[in-house]
Amino acid sequence: MTAQWLIVPILLPLLMAPLLLLCERWHPRWQAPLALLSTLAVAIVAAGLVRMADTGTVGVYLLGNWQPPFGIVLVLDRLSALLLLLTAVVALASQIAAAPLAARGPHFHAFFQVQLAGLNGAFLTGDLFNLFVFFEVLLIASYALLLHDAKGRALRAGLHYVVINLVGSALFLIAASLFYGVVGTLNFADLAARLPQLAPQDAGLAQAAALLLLVVFGIKAALLPLGFWLPGTYGAAPGPVAALFAIMTKVGLYGIIRTSTLLFGAGTTALTGWGADAVFALGVVTMGFGAISALSSQRMGKLIGSLVLVSSGTLIAASTLGEPALAGALYYMVHSTLAIALLFLLAHSIGLQRGATADRFGDGPAVTQPVLLGLLFVFAAAAVAGLPPLGGFIGKALMLSATINTSVMAWFWGAVIGSGVLGIMVLARAGSRVFWNVNGAATVAPPMAPSALGGIAVLVLASLLWTALAAAAARYTADTALQLVQPHLYVDAVMRTAPVPAPAKEH
Amino acid sequence: MTAWFVASAIGVLTACGVWLCLRARSFDVVLGLTLLTYAVNVFIFAMGRLAFNMPPIVRPGVPATLAHYADPLPQALVLTAIVISFAMTALVLTLAMKAYHVNGSDACDPPPTDKGAGTGAAPP
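YS: structure for the whole thing
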């Protein structure tokens, strides 16, 4: 009976979206509370799903009650559950903060719910083609959110984002159909079970498909050389939308972790551990590029976009280093997502109080609330850069201690610590230029709206909570990593799930 | 021979699509994306193996193996892919049109004189 809960995080926002459109037409005042209620409900269900996944069993829901591997399955393991909860929390904060933005154009809340459904679906699905469909769902909603209330520069950045993602979708389709062509299935569990029996002459095709998948997920996760679009696009997005997009790179990361552990992980196949060194190297290069891009940023939005690259590179590099490093990376992932979303919301609020200077690093009017915004900025900067005592530091310490005395220690430690130092420098410069380089122009901007404060409060609380509960959280992520490196748990759970028998006919 | 025709059709479509996608005008890029999705759709179809005069639906009396039927799954996948790519093309077209009207040109990147647009530097 409990398996039915797996469909709720997808179905609820998807049903809510058309309802919100109707609401917008006839009762516009109800729209925002209704949308918030829906996101809140998804968050509560996600918290329940985390508890359910934490028992160690892999939850499986058969859509349409088909016998696996036929038909589409939804699968809930610890990783999916964690990402669902993270998505819901970030979405909640972003939605609260987006209230003024949503009022400036049509359909914002409906698109937001579709985006939520797409994200949740991508984290839950156990089928490669269905993953593609959910990618498209979340992308088409993200295009609309990105361009909500967009002007010239944002329109161009939006066009780049749409085109690069469409090319990514084409590559995803080629990869998925190649897998179908050589293995004969698209179900993750079935793929994992059948890949070891791959005929030797098909190994090359399977490797090509795996590489194409890596390119697709690399575009989403902004892995270099596929991530040049990210700082510009995120920098051009409205603040609350950019905060939600902090979770979007995690979809790519999720894809990389899921495929590398489940499909190309255990067992002896042509794909086992294949290309892991290259992915690690690209992750390290991404961190370096992100740090340099952050140094060269002239706007707060672009700076934070560059920090997204650093975080993404760290996570991808660490995810290739085996189970203890993966556990640390998952802990770090949650905190860095929350911190980056927080920075985006703060940058938006700061930009609103600096008149025409907005979030650019130049002399501008002083912000209206320097103490409040300044303290919040210091908190967010410390969280992103990984300074103690916040969760970013614990996550980095977990990753670093997991790689002591390994062959990649020098590279990984150098990249993590180096990008951390650069991050502190860049954020300190940004803070001093925004808060202290004032040209004496009169400040006329109103103080922060309650909605902006509310969104920020959600993220600060979540970040503090993740730090305060570090022991329990690190235990959960360690269990997650342990579950991920045992792909047979996932495969067995899916393949052994029997359809619900039809009720007996009465005669 | 048929396989050769299908394969080269996919190859030509992909090559044209990639070339057009690399052009600097949004109209060309949209055309390129369209060609690319055509190539991908044919590719998905071909991944179910090319079969002639074979229905994808099971008939009574004929054993249900792929020797007697066309694989129905890629046909279903390709329908999904066509619908999605159609919607995406429509979206990118509206977007390109809007960008053209707002920016006054359909160039994908801002001209070099227009400093503020791409680099993030400040127009006053």
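YS: worth flagging: The interface with chain B takes residues 129, 133, 136, 140, 143, 147, 151-153, 155-156, 158-160, 162-163, 166-167, 169-170, 173-174, 176-178, 180-181, 232, 235, 297-299, 302, 356, 360, 362 of chain A (CB under 8 Å).
IM: good catch. Also Chain A has a mean pLDDT of 88.
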